[in-house]
Amino acid sequence: MDAARIAFEEWGSGPPLILLHGLGDRRQSWSAVVPLLAEEYRVVCVDLPGFGRTPAPPEGDPYDILTMTDDVQAFCELHGLERPHLAGNSLGGSIALELGVRGRAGSVTVFSPAGFSGELARLGFRVLGSLADLATRIPLHVKERLASTAPARAIARTVLRGDPASPRAKSVRFSVRGLEKGAPFVRMLPSIAEYEFEQRPIDCPVTIAWGDRDRTLLPSSAEHAHRRVPNARMVSLLGSGHIPMADDPVSVAGHIRWTCRSAERRAGR
């Protein structure tokens, strides 16, 4: 797609740092982390293709993790962001790692990246893809009503937050607007289910962090990540779920900063 159509916001000044969100999310997922980093870095938050304010590729065009990686690479080239620091969550983490493989990153910090699940978890994503396809046939107002029920909200808090009982988790609910026929979320799910990160060299500092309460991409996936990215610094985020930027933004910012500084020390800055 045309990289000029990728929506983004930026704050601060210094070495560039790009933040990449997860599947079905948008750039605002990093809002609690940005102020903790913008004093040292030029922080750029993007809406990945199909999410937030960035349009998806037309129906029938390739649309998967590798094409999204191409799009983010083109975005960096368009805006003169040469080997920026990269941080990503889930889908965004996979894109950051793929850009690291291509030599396009100054450092890579990822949180629960896709591509390291065992076969059982991948089967679960295939089933989820089938359920999402079925959900496209249900009228939107019915889905909205179901998502607002107490049981559905409880499941959303359990799946998406490390501590479902925390005050910050009270407003969490599943978004059903992505469950329309041809919607980006539905189109991407099969790609996520089949994607597997293959071991290849990444010639920059890498941190892979996993929430110990991640119920979407299980913490056991970190074992596969450690084997396939052996130079990575592995971190367990105590008390965090699949979206640690919401559960513990201070720790998330700290790990990003640590990896960035490691790269800067290597470069002799």
From TrEMBL:
GO terms for molecular function: hydrolase activity. It holds the Pfam family Abhydrolase_1. Keywords: Hydrolase. Residues 15-249 form the AB hydrolase-1 domain. One of its GO terms (cellular component) is membrane. This is Pimeloyl-ACP methyl ester carboxylesterase. It comes from Nocardiopsis algeriensis. The lineage of its organism: Bacteria, Bacillati, Actinomycetota, Actinomycetes, Streptosporangiales.
